UniProtKB/TrEMBL annotation:
Residues 251-579 form the Glycoside hydrolase family 31 TIM barrel domain. This is Glycoside hydrolase family 31 protein. It comes from Flavobacterium plantiphilum. Keywords: Glycosidase, Hydrolase. Residues 689-757 form the DUF5110 domain. Residues 38-209 form the Glycoside hydrolase family 31 N-terminal domain. One of its GO terms (molecular function) is hydrolase activity. It comes from the Bacteria. It holds the Pfam family Glyco_hydro_31_2nd.
Length: 798
């Protein structure tokens, strides 16, 4: 046992014994002899907030991450005092706070340990910064695993790793490189098949150590601010992630086109080049919904201006592109060029909206336009002004989405790549230095952009994408994983990053397909697009230094593979949209790492490559050149190989053959997968049938399909269509019950049903208990069945 005195010796300070406690509705305050206060708040039966101060009082409670609308309220709260500890009991957990040293111990109701403080809360006075480095350490148990933390480019299971959270412009980052662009100080622990989560809501530079420094200890600490964290109890990883996502917020639905394929490059210009690219997509019949303008569309990289030599009439161009189904998305960076003739600069200067150094002058730094000043997006008035700047781009010119970049914030030609620490921020009325505001800067920029685009796009939905983000950014924006590299290793990284972002509440994410830096081979590009179409955000982007990265920059075979997979994405749009709906409704991640999918199966704990796309499709990318297949783990249950329709039983690792124009994709037995016809862009075609691929299973399986007007806000008034199919398969029959919710009447009138794996020949069909005329020869020829969409029960008999 280490005593307090020994520890103080090392420079760390610890709470001493509790001298009093007080309850205030859902919060309990514990006061120690040495002025530490722990405020413990029960937000829900399985969600507790721990807040510590060493000052003897708490500063203003303010967080950018927490969503105001989060669920709050518990069923049971009881506080008792025992000889050595205080006990807080809810409907789900028991938490004990030790009187002697303020350490906390959390148990489930059966008394199993969920999480115990090791040293617990402690701190070190920082002479460099003033204030404290606040620290927490937890005992880690044999076999415990860790997941989450946003965009980390390392193994899914974080056990043995130490990570750092400090938003950084990390061009051509490497595997294991730290820190990266985003900051999501949230992780899940899994032990004895029980999951819990920790969200350390502190925007200073934070660190997490998962049994790296000491084998039995997990710790997290920060260069300032408060020890302020939330504990989530599972026991399912689903419970933890959905509860974290509820706390930090969910996005609204994006317009359906935003789930289509996007094409980007640094940069497409002039107008003729943009048109060549879009025309080529249509000519080659590769679906595409969005085209991006990178920084060269601007006049000298001044945001909200156009280079009139390259783009003489942006409004005309944007509308011509729109007629061809392309939505135009433009980049907007935070650096505002210092130029007395430039209206945005002048306005911000007049209104005093730029960030300042501690001693008074404006924060000045070099970015693309040269010397710039930077709006302080942590000031609500600045955000409001910024939102207003989008009027011309969105209302007048017709731009449909905005891409926020360099918002870590990035500064060029300085060793720390960002602002100096002394820069001042408003922080919504809680003035602070850049040390505290750094990690949130990008999110506040994206938030201001979102409000602007939304205001002027209304009644249509906005689309925003950001590079930097802090927890909660998902309420406003999608994101991409930053400047990756055209290498096989980066394909591996992209797969992990996007899965990890998904279970970290920020699901609408993708990577630069093909790699941003350097040149992918045709094979690498093909393998990347095969994975990328299964990412919630799907965009090819490249730095343009090395030539072209449009599908036709590669040979015919690669073009065909690209078309085949982008077509598949467009067919799966209703499935993807349904995943998105479940994300915004329930907080369910759109991609599920295998461990999340089945935490009962310990074989999944160290898997990286395989993931579940939505609820019923298993995907495993090919991550090596010259592959004819790969070994992969198939989770328990029955799965159909998407390409061969052969069924396999999971729960084991196996070799899966995979030609160059395939990657392993499996569909869960019993699933009903909705598909649209291939369209060159969302809304191109009207169609009279929703295709349903029905994968036979002996037993039951539920599948759902969410649809609405694909844009606009009527869905919030109940104008959506939610189909829920209950399939029951028996030896010689299939029964499908359909339940419909919502007031939206979809444009199609029929389902076109395609049966896969049916072990019997169809002899008889009943719809709502009435036999229908069924031509078995026609069925044999076509292999599908057309039935009206309004049935309640479809009964297929052999
Ligand atoms: C940054 C972005 C990249 C963009 C480039 C030029 O490197 O990450 O996506 O193309 O800046 O704007």
């Amino acid at each position: 046992m280490i005593t307090n005195t020994e520890l103080e010796y090392k420079g760390d300070l610890y709470p001493s014994k509790i001298v009093s406690f007080k309850q205030d509705v859902d919060s309990v305050y514990f006061y120690t002899e040495n002025n530490v206060i722990l405020k413990l708040t029960v937000l829900r039966d399985s969600l507790i907030r721990f807040r510590y101060t060493t000052k003897g009082y708490f500063s203003n409670d303010f967080s950018y991450a927490i969503d105001e609308g989060h669920s709050h309220g518990y069923n049971h709260l009881e506080i008792t005092e025992e000889e050595n500890y205080y006990q807080i009991t809810t409907n789900k957990i028991i938490c004990k706070i030790h009187k002697i040293d303020l350490r906390s111990f959390i148990y489930d109701l059966k008394g199993n340990v969920l999480l115990e403080d090791e040293l617990g809360f402690h701190w070190e006075e920082s002479y460099e910064f003033g204030g404290n480095i606040v620290k927490m350490s937890k005992a880690s148990r044999e076999g415990e695993c860790f997941y989450g933390l946003g965009d980390k480019a390392t193994q899914m299971n974080l056990k043995g790793k130490r990570v750092e959270n400090f938003a950084t412009d990390q061009y051509a980052f490497q595997k294991e490189q730290e820190p990266l662009y985003k900051v999501v100080p949230f992780y899940l622990g899994l032990h004895n098949k029980q999951a819990y989560g920790i969200f350390f809501d502190n925007t200073f530079r934070t660190f997490f150590d998962f049994c790296h420094e000491r084998r039995n200890v997990t710790s997290f600490w920060s260069d300032g601010g408060e020890m302020n964290y939330y504990f989530f109890y599972g026991p399912k990883m689903q419970d933890v992630v959905t509860s974290y996502t509820d706390l930090t917020g969910k996005p609204e639905l994006p317009p359906l086109w935003a789930l289509g394929y996007h094409q980007c490059k640094w940069s497409y210009y002039p107008e003729s080049n943009v048109k060549e690219v879009t025309a080529k997509f249509r000519e080659l019949q590769i679906p595409c919904d969005a085209i991006y303008l990178d920084i060269d569309y601007m006049d000298g990289f001044r945001c909200f201006t156009w280079n009139k030599d390259y783009f003489p009439d942006p409004k005309r161009m944007v509308s011509e592109l729109a007629q061809d189904g392309f939505k135009t998305i433009v980049i907007i960076d935070p650096g505002i060029k210092i130029d007395k003739e430039y209206w945005v600069y002048k306005e911000a200067l007049e209104k005093d909206y730029f960030c300042k150094r501690a001693d008074g002058p404006y924060m000045k730094g070099k970015v693309w336009p040269g010397e710039c000043n930077f709006p302080d997006y942590t000031n609500p008035e600045v955000r409001e002004w910024w939102a207003g700047l989008f009027k011309e781009l969105i209302s007048d010119i017709g731009v449909k989405g905005v891409w926020n970049d360099m918002n870590e914030p990035a500064v060029m030609e300085v060793p720390n790549k960002t602002f100096p620490n002394d820069v001042r921020h408003n922080y919504d009325g809680n003035p602070c230095s850049h040390r505290k505001a750094h990690n949130i800067y990008g999110t506040q920029m994206a938030r201001a952009t979102y409000h602007g685009v939304k205001r002027f796009a209304y009644p249509k939905r906005p689309f925003i994408i950001t590079r930097s983000a802090y927890s909660g950014a998902q309420r406003y924006t999608s994101s991409w994983t930053g400047d990756n590299v055209a290498s096989w290793e980066h394909l591996w990284i992209a797969n992990i990053q996007v899965q990890r972002m998904s279970i970290s509440g920020m699901g609408f994410t993708g990577s630069d397909i093909g790699g941003f830096a350097e040149q992918p081979s045709g094979e690498l590009y093909a393998r990347w697009i095969q994975l990328g179409v299964f990412h919630p955000f799907c965009r090819t982007h490249s730095s343009g230094d090395h030539g072209n990265q449009e599908p036709w920059a590669f040979d015919e075979e690669v073009i065909d593979i690209t078309r085949k997979f982008v077509n598949l994405r467009y067919q799966l749009l209703p499935y993807l949209y349904t995943m998105f709906w479940q994300y915004i409704e329930e907080g369910t991640p759109m991609l599920k790492p295998l461990v999340y999918f089945d935490q009962e199966d310990i074989q999944t704990y160290y898997r990286n490559d395989e993931f579940i796309f939505g609820n019923q499709i298993l995907v495993c990318p090919i991550l090596e050149p010259n592959s004819l297949g790969r070994r992969m783990y198939i989770p328990k249950g029955e799965w159909y190989n998407y390409w061969t329709n052969c069924m396999v039983k999971g729960g084991k690792e196996m070799w899966v053959d995979s030609k160059f124009d395939e990657i392993p994709v499996f569909v869960k037995a019993g699933a009903i997968i909705p598909k649209y016809p291939v369209q060159q862009y969302v809304g191109e075609l009207e169609f009279d049938e929703l295709m349903l691929d029905v994968y036979y299973k002996e037993g039951k399986e539920k599948s759902v399909v969410y649809e609405d007007a694909q844009d606009g806000y009527d869905y919030k008034k109940g104008r959506f269509s939610f189909l829920s199919f209950q399939l029951t398969g028996k030896e010689k029959e299939i029964n499908i019950q359909l339940h419909k919710d919502g007031k939206y009447d979809t444009n199609y009138s029929n389902f076109k049903i395609n049966f896969i794996g049916l072990p019997f020949e169809i002899k008889k069909i009943e719809i709502d208990n009435e036999e229908i005329i069924f031509d078995s020869n026609l069925f044999k020829e076509n292999q599908y069945l057309i039935v009206p969409k309004n049935f309640n029960v479809l009964h297929i008999m052999g």
